[in-house]
């Protein structure tokens, strides 16, 4: 069972979602700007593909895939994320429901609620929007979700399978990065990749797929030489590893960490960071880890923030949910 | 529960197990040779520590830890490995038994045998000597061993826990490398490490511990910047990454892959490779991945083959077995 999506639309996608422009440098020469890897547009195309597949699935007599999104407390960012996920689900034909709890909910109550959803045959996917309140053990909560319904891919068993290159459910953001590299035909085989940030939900799984053997069962291996940098990588070493990289994936939440002089001309830069900052005019805006305007003059391809990895994450979550529904059906009918 | 072993003997160990010598270079100057990280001697000390602890454990009224080593077929190397493990077990006071099967054994029969050992309260550790016959699915066999008795650390759940920096059973060879770095006080924090080889039992778990956050629950994180190189890393890139590394861990089985001009003066080189070759006199001998005699003139510290990581692997397997016995006891009495 390979997790490669349908590539039928790729050639048309490439035209619509890769944009490049020229600019005039300080000596008056026209130079090529990096191609912008438009995640929003690609995510739309992937959702359209999924919508068709889910329609076929339902036409074959299956019920629509079903996703339950649990949110505890009133963090506005979390509510926005869940709202986006539920909207995307509705768009592709997934029956999604948000289950809201006050932050007075106890860990035991949350665990019971998850267990009920685990046992419910009419539920295919369960996600618990993180962070959970500090009174709860996040790891314990993630491990309560049945691995087959764990569309976030955070359960120990799903992580173990990922790290052993076995078919599994991959954390959506990590899968989004790998899917963008594939869809935009960025060569990774034998290339140098740097992953900046070692979080267990993003940096670690990305590094795992980037370095792994493509011939293994998951089909997600990218065969790159991968360097994992993090908060304790000295600045000059981070700069040096990045300058030597064909692909930089950054996921730190540090605005402007990746500057133009750290990027090899023509390299691909995937920006997973997302931070809300206040600009000089006092307006708030979302920025990534990359000094976008300057890096665009050097890189070969670059994801914007917003509109890059973010919308792709939501699309891959929908992919995971449909995959969970299909596998659960395979299990119950076999 | 932290997996740090007792360090009481470290200072005396360091004297006895780190050796360095001088040599005369081509210009007639005396130069320092790398310290030889003597795994055999360190392994002996660790086994002596374990022997004491197990004696105390038994004196407190527990039965001796029990290890079952399953071997299928008649591969001579596999039989030698198992013999060494059983001998080490006896030395430290672990009650070890080898269970031998003909290679006509079916996968189903092996799985049943493992399940019986899983259910047996008098068994703490189970290992299946790899490789199993080609008629069997190695992954399925590894996942049949109960995670708490899986002293090889190959079960999906143990791998998942390792990759999430949770307390777990770590594959013995990977743990041997990390333990040598700790015992010989090789600084890893913020340093550059290269892991050559991406196997799931050796290279991958080593890279995982080397790059991880020391403050996490497992206590095994080493906070190094880690580059994972493999068969598809171009030769000149492998050379360049190695030359920039403070620590090189190589686990490829390719003799003389790591040459002196690839090693930064003063770097630590850990050689996990072990290959039997025939020398110019027609004699067979065991060699590692490292061009030992030449690299010794450049490196700061270096493990020999044989007598480096190999004996340490056996010692760490004993550590894993005693740990499994303790945890199983904790589980049944709580």
Automatic annotation (TrEMBL), chains A, B:
CDD domains: NAD_bind_m-THF_DH_Cyclohyd
Main enzyme class: hydrolase
Keyword Cell wall biogenesis/degradation tagged: no
GO biological process: tetrahydrofolate interconversion
Reactions listed under catalytic activity: (6R)-5,10-methenyltetrahydrofolate + H2O = (6R)-10-formyltetrahydrofolate + H(+)
Cellular-component GO terms for this entry: mitochondrion
UniProt KW keywords: Hydrolase, Multifunctional enzyme, One-carbon metabolism, Oxidoreductase
EC number per UniProt: 3.5.4.9
Highest taxon of the lineage: Eukaryota
Residue intervals of the Tetrahydrofolate dehydrogenase/cyclohydrolase catalytic domain: 37-152
Domain Tetrahydrofolate dehydrogenase/cyclohydrolase NAD(P)-binding: 171-327
Quaternary structure, from the entry: Homodimer.
Record protein name field: methenyltetrahydrofolate cyclohydrolase
